[in-house]
Design brief:
about 450 residues, mainly alpha, Serine Threonine Protein Phosphatase 5, Tetratricopeptide repeat, four-stranded antiparallel beta sheet, disordered N terminus
Amino acid sequence: MKKLIFAVLAVTFMAAPMANAQRGVSKDALTAKLAKIDATIADAKKATKAATWLKHAQETYKVLSAPVANIFVGMPFEEAQINIGKPDSSNANVNLNGKAYTEHVYPWMKLYVGADNKIGTWVMTQQVSDKDLVGVIMNSYNKALELDAKKMAEPVGEGLKMLENYLNQSASVAMDAGLNKLAAEAYARAYAVQETPGFTGIVNKQYLFYSGFLYVVDAQNNNDQASYAAGSVVLNKALQSGYTDEDGNIYYYLYLCYFGQDDSSVRVANLQRAKQLLMEGLSKYPKNDKIVEGLINIYTSADSASLGDPSELVNMVDAALARDPKNRDMWYGRGRIFFSLKNYDESIKSFKKVAELDPKDAQVQFFIGYFYLVQADAMNDEINKKDYKSNAEFNEDQEKVKGVYRAAIPYLEKSYELNPKDLRNVELAKEVTFKLRDEEGMMPKYEKYNKAYQELKGAK
């Protein structure tokens, strides 16, 4: 999942450096500052001025970001100490989210520094206030804009971009620390900032996708029904906004959100929604194996009786192919569905159609050969379970298996012809020709592929 998901721009927050800022930012001082700031908008006369609300938002943001205002991920620890002082204590070789760090304890946070002596991430150990300061800031900017849209447009826009960046950084840092739910919440808030009237930056819909994915991760790690529910909200919002990731995995994650809510009073409705999403995803991304796996899983679950006949999945694909018989990707998806169902004949038939439409695709040729091998291996397993009464009966079944192995060879050879550097294909060709080595012409083929395999393996 690392591929899309976590390509987030690193955001640095460089306020004016202050010596020992971490120790200087005391809880009491920040609480007093908040009270002083809030007093300005409590004044009836001052509260009528846009500038009052602008200043309130700006000063509240300074309080919110004060503990991390002078550090950023990737910052050399020596530089960080100039800004926030020396740690109260340090612990070497601390494992956090699968990585080794030196942990430096500060009044507001635990700072994690990697072997390169740069900040990797941090975990906040106390909050500036029990209030929702992000919400307070957004409301104050909105009020300033409401009172004087023309004059406030530029400073409000800049302030909201700073808040969005702060939340983006908070999400990225939390994610790196393994705090997936916290990261999900921060990404969702970052998107919410972008929805405010005064926001003038570029709207990043990926925030919703990141948020939903992280809610799913948290739900699966902790069996958290609330995270599944929250994930469904943000991922649905992403779809409604017109966002889909390149591979269509959003449909799979949404399916997990609904399918995972197994203690819900609306279980049947959730399953129907999960099925609907997967069907929609399959129609748009027929090559997405996760979607296919989700459909197989949902139709073979204990609750599948409420979903209808599994054959409707195949019927849907076949109906689409009837409308567009040259849809290569749909044939590919059909083959994957039948392979998951262990219907190898239909799977092979579908992939042969793909090969017919795209004869130069080495991978498709490989899969046809591979499916034949899997089918032959499955037949062998059945033979081993049978209690034969005669050698003739056993030999007859063995010949059938060999026939399937033989059927794989032309496709593996074609795949090799199209892409002679595919190690996995060469390995399969070597194995199947070795199985059939006693048949005429097979030993030279085995020697050819064995030599190619050794050369490719040595090259790696």
